[in-house]
Amino acid sequence: MAENLNLFTSTQEIVHEALTKMGYDETVYELMKEPMRLLTVRMPVRMDDGSTRVFTGYRAQHNDSVGPTKGGVRFHPDVDEEEVKALSMWMTLKCGIVDLPYGGGKGGIICDPRTMSMRELENLSRAYVRAISQIVGPTKDIPAPDVYTNSQIMAWMMDEYSRIDEFNSPGFITGKPIVLGGSQGREKATAQGVTICIDQAAKKRGIDIKGARVVVQGFGNAGSFLAKFMHDAGAKVIAISDAHGAIHDPNGLDIDYLLDRRDSFGTVTTLFENTLTNSQLLEIECDILVPAAVSNQITAENVDRINASIIVEAANGPTTIEATKRLNDRGVLLVPDVLASSGGVTVSYFEWVQNNQGYYWTEDEVNEKLEKKLIDAFNQVYDLSQSRRVNMRLAAYMVGVRKAAEASRFRGWV
């Protein structure tokens, strides 16, 4: 039988298994298996050459029983409806795992920002906010940055929403520049969360981070910060990759040099000869492997050649269900994406809280609060996986879906 590589249907599969394990009936799964709302929008945008292009965008709101929905907006040529729906479900799980008062949301626009000017990106960002303005807001649905979006795009979106609302609304969106109400530590938050999970996993396996061999697939926002955090903690980052290939040095790479040389899209391997492929990188023998690039990287086809003691997922869906089961059977500790990459939404929540109260924290305060949230979440998932004898992914889904399921039950929806 062919392996399921569809992120949406494989997510549904694990959610169903998690709910069944916890004794919920099929009605709860029927509510949870799809977003409660999915808006598709078409946006005409004036381009620099005077022509008008019509872009398609989406906003999915998975479940708002706990509170407003929350999730990023990605600008990417491969954005589609199923991806946005799956990602909104993951956001519900992440918010449940780190115990935030949110449900999951997600948005995306089909475009290639690498080929667009700043003015075109601004026009598109504002058009998107106008198109979705009726279903979003600080108490309804709070967007954030995602693939190929950043604090500048969040600033344009906040400004457009504030114009429509006729009220300064910093709490409408997170991941903003600091001067517009952004939070200290937001940019590094996802990588910081992954680092905390790596520390906890290493302790469970008796591995000292100092001198540990780490392989990082991906050198974008999460991957590059993570490589730097690991390098600074004394680990040997022996391989990294970007979209063009991978570089490997068993003695450890000079991460500061690579960060200095990479371009704005995280590309650095084009400067080197004798590069490896991304699939070769995954098979390098190491203590800790961090897939921080794209989905479906570790599959039934290559899982038996993976040579790591711990895998911590910084990307969305890098390991398939079948591969997860086989790694678990081999005794590999796999920390799933919905737990490991929840640092971003956690600090986004902190940003929203700071906007609402008009009082802002230092970076040390943010990091301290983040560390407590992530350690508590890691231990809850790990302990459940041990007591129920299930893999960490299923345990994370059980913890993550419980909050929304219970809130829906108390509301009388199911």
Please, could you describe this protein's structure?
The protein has 414 residues and is an alpha/beta fold. The chain is built from 14 helices and eleven strands. It has helices at residues 7-21, 26-32, 81-97, 118-132, 151-165, 189-205, 221-232, 255-261, 278-282, 321-329, 337-340, 343-357, 363-387, 392-411, and strands at 37-46, 52-61, 69-76, 103-110, 141-145, 213-217, 236-242, 245-248, 286-291, 308-312, 333-335. A hairpin with a 5-residue loop joins strand 1 (37-46) and strand 2. Helix 1 runs antiparallel to helix 2, helix 3 crosses helix 14 and helix 13 packs across helix 14 (392-411). The protein is globular. It starts with 6 loop residues before the first helix and ends with a helix.
Number of β-strand runs = 11
Question: Termini separation (Å)?
Answer: 35 Å
Quaternary form: single chain
Shape: globular
Order of helices and strands: HHEEEHEHEHHEHEEHHEEHEHHHH
Strands ordered across the widest β-sheet = 8-7-6-9-10-11
What can be said about the biggest beta sheet? 6 strands, mixed
Rg (C-alpha, Å): 21 Å
Structural class: alpha/beta
- Report helical residue fraction: 40-55%
Tally of helical runs = 14
Q: Please report which band the strand proportion falls in: under 5%, 5-15%, 15-25%, 25-35%, 35-45% or over 45%.
A: 15-25%
Mean pLDDT: 94
Low-pLDDT parts are none
